[in-house]
Amino acid sequence: MSASIEIAGVSKVYDGGVRAVDAVAMDIRQGEFFSLLGPSGCGKTTTLRMIAGFEIPSAGAIRVDGADITHVPAHKRDMGMVFQNYALFPHRTVAENVAFGLRMRGLDKATIATKVKAALAMVELSGLEERRPAHLSGGQQQRVALARAIVIAPRVLLCDEPLGALDKKLRQQMQFELKQLQKKLGLTLVFVTHDQEEALAMSDRIAVMNGGRVEQIGTPAEIYNQPTTRFVADFIGDTNIFRGERTTTNTMASAIDVGKDLILALPRSPDIQGTGILSVALRPEKICLSPRADAATATATATGSCAHGIVENTNFLGGAVLYRITLEGGHRVLVQQPNAGTSRLFVPGNDVTLDWTPADLVVLKD
Amino acid sequence: MSSAAAQRPNGLALFILPGALLFALFFFLPIGLMALMSILTGNPVVAPKVAFTTRHYARMIGDPFYLEVIWTTIRIGLVTTLVALAIGYPLAHWMARIKSRAGHALLLMAVLAPMLTGIVVRTFAWMTLLSDRGVINQTLISLGLISQPLKLMYTETGIVVGLVHIYVPFMVLTLTGVIGRIDERLEQAAENLGASPLRAFLEVTLPLSLPGILAGSLLVFALAISAYVTPILLGGFQIMTLPILIYQQISANFNVGFAAALGIVLLMISLLLVVAYNRALGLVSGQHDLQ
What we know:
The structure holds 2 protein chains of 2 kinds.
Chain A: E1 5-13, E2 19-28, E3 33-37, H1 44-52, E4 59-64, E5 67-68, E6 79-82, H2 94-104, H3 109-122, H4 138-150, E7 156-160, H5 168-185, E8 189-193, H6 196-202, E9 205-210, E10 213-218, H7 220-225, H8 230-235, E11 240-247, E12 255-257, E13 263-265, E14 277-282, E15 288-291, H9 294-302, E16 306-316, E17 320-327, E18 332-338, E19 351-355, E20 362-364
Parallel strand pairs in A: 3-8, 3-9, 6-7, 7-8
Antiparallel strand pairs in A: 1-2, 1-4, 4-5, 9-10, 11-12, 11-14, 12-13, 14-20, 15-19, 16-17, 16-19, 17-18
Helix pairs in contact in A: 2-3, 2-4, 3-4
Chain B: H1 2-13, H2 16-37, H3 55-62, H4 64-97, H5 101-112, H6 119-130, H7 135-142, H8 156-180, H9 184-192, H10 197-208, H11 210-225, H12 229-235, H13 242-251, H14 256-290
Helix pairs in contact in B: 2-14, 3-4, 4-8, 4-11, 6-8, 6-12, 8-11, 8-12, 9-10, 11-14, 13-14
């Protein structure tokens, strides 16, 4: 049966004083697809290895279904793990690899054979039982590693960048299959990745980590639409970040002066406090682009949700187009527009008007 | 382009010439001569009337003394190999897995340091430890644990102790390379699947290090059965091994033909082992290619 995991104030300090993980706290719910996302060296893999029992926390506790397992050795934790390089046993066949965990649990041969067969069928590897890992493709090895981990019906499945070594097409297919399998088996899955698209596509919730700390925990939509810190806003997707001082104008009760003749209206939110320096983020696709029309936008400019600029260059993405625009004051802004047909695309040098809704502006903690 | 590519291997092949020449002159020629001498009645250079004969080999097989010497030599080799493996494997595992660079350097130095001293010196050192009035016996007697000195010198045990000390580094260095190349995550994967650390070692690391165990054992065995100085000094001619016998046949009995025959037997034992090693390795790694 799947379990919940509670990570309570866990730190890991290595010899020499390196703080790989710093007071991390998170609650992973039963049956949840939970991702640890961050750049390399952010502590995500160390956190996973502490859950697996390969590293012992320097401080804090890890609880599974409420029971403290901080000092339980790895082989008694009953967790499945898919390693980054798969870590398949090269001297054993596919079937023997998958059977390993069942053998360690002392099951009889007939039961093992049945379960191995079922697990291999589940990952669509039937017929490859007698192969050795060296004779399998990367995708097949990945499936063997997955089958080996789930055949023991683990309380938790841990995945350390399991799809990192696969090419893009195969990776997308495996993302889909892994997600489907996780839902079907109701597995609690902790997934480590540095690939934000992968984390956004697969997770129920994501913990974004940086420098050994958790920056933000939330659903993919929350992480993307309401990043709470500058790091999260910057790390997830493209974004425009402005930094300036709180101010008020005749037309705006609450605004931010980001310099170079640009004043942005702030969203009406009770939790924006103080008068100091603020950072705000605005996603490129939340900005609307149109040919320059001075008269119509004069009032909008005064309300802090509109600006004029010139298209510097364009980046055609297929379904969308990414424009790099220099505003009149000199700010450089990214704008993404859906591809609405060749005749409606802008080209470098075009005079354009940008407008957006103040509510889409996200105020960040530094 | 095609002509250049065709000529290239020929040009490179020339570089093998010095090595091949050296090999022919100092390896094939002496061994060929030795093999020839072992089936001749005398030295063809000094005695003009020589004929082919099997009497050297017949003498060896006909006399239980020589068979006993051959068996003693093999026994000492086997025991030395097993002890060196038992001591060397944990050490090699430690060296291959140690995280700290300084620790690794210290271990490597500890393994290599004995090799900086000559075999003769090290053997004499063992004599001062093992003899009747040596450190070990004197200590045990003064502690009242024994009344008569233990017979440590001039026994096979003494020879094995000396040989193990000399050849453990060969075992350790061979094994360290092999164990170091085994991915640690394989053991972690085994533990994750419910294997205790010992079980993970037995199921994963040990079988994967088998090629290293075979190579190190072969090396130590071949060196141990051809050792000469240590068996003489620690065995005091009371334990007879093939190399000692060969030396006696040449220097004391001037029976070069019989010495050559004994040498061929020693060589055959080693060659048989190399063949067995290749077979065993083929079986171990052959599994990888069964498919």
